[in-house]
Amino acid sequence: MFKQVSHRRRGFTLIELIVVLAIIALLASLVAPRYSRSVDNAREASLKTSLNVMRDAIDKYMADKGSYPDSLQDLVRRGYLRQIPEDPMTGTRDSWQMLPPPPDSQDKGRMADVRSGASGRGQNGELFSNW
To answer: Which of the pair, 2 or 21, is modelled with greater confidence?
Structure first.
């Protein structure tokens, strides 16, 4: 005759929550190194592309004008580049290092090549400033 009333609450126990959080932490620790490696790969690919584009613009400027440009800004002013690309390793546009022509060269201008101003090494072990 007596009806048994159940006062049981629905929800998760503390143990269940701890187990779920431990599984999430384990999965995150497995994924994090791969994510940071893929970000580094993307930055290095972007650096290589930017260097190739700027070097190509320097070569075209030299072929058209008969001398090297004085700065990256010259390449922008004359239409060889739309804008100076951002160095993906430093996050700025003004960290590029301009390399002069060889001393024995008769070419005029102050910039025959460009390199990244970033310190550090790529995943291949080579300095960014040597790329």
So the answer is: 21
